[in-house]
Amino acid sequence: MERHQIVVGIEETPSSAAALRWAARFARLTGQTLRVVHTWTLPSGGMPTAPDPYLVTAITDARARATRFVEDSLGAEETSVRWVLDVDEGRPGPVLARRSEDASLLVVGTGEHTGVRRLLEGSVSHYCLSHATCPVVAVPAPRAAKDDAPAVAAG
């Protein structure tokens, strides 16, 4: 992996789209390549011993969805920045920390997972801030996405 690249982790969320747009603008300003990383995990049974058509289709679909997400999130910016897409198996935090070992910067979205989901999955941004060997930028979810969250009444 080349040192003159910015790694950004994506999932299909508003904070991920914000992180992607931030990373694309920074990559364009600095003349660096943007390496977009999307992760997926194997079913609980692990890797099948024989080729599994369902698994091959799932990986292909993940790549297609990630490509559409990048193109939709970047819009016109998509053509003004060099980017490559990696779809990798594994938990997001460890994959992003590993993928960014030789990068100049790692960019992640933050602020979407709370409560039980955060407890079960952990915070990807916190993992990256704690384990990445390059500088990390954590981009918060856009204000509108936070404002659209349902209100919780105290009882």
UniProtKB/TrEMBL annotation:
Highest rank taxon of the organism: Bacteria
Pfam family for this entry, one: Usp
CDD domains per UniProt: USP_At3g01520-like
Similarity comment: family membership: Belongs to the universal stress protein A family.
Gene3D superfamilies found in the cross-reference section: HUPs
Entry-linked InterPro entries: Rossmann-like_a/b/a_fold, Universal_stress_UspA, UspA
Lineage per the UniProt record: Bacteria, Bacillati, Actinomycetota, Actinomycetes, Micrococcales
Species in which this protein is naturally found: Oryzihumus leptocrescens
Residue ranges annotated for the UspA domain, each copy included: 4-140
UniProt protein name: Nucleotide-binding universal stress UspA family protein
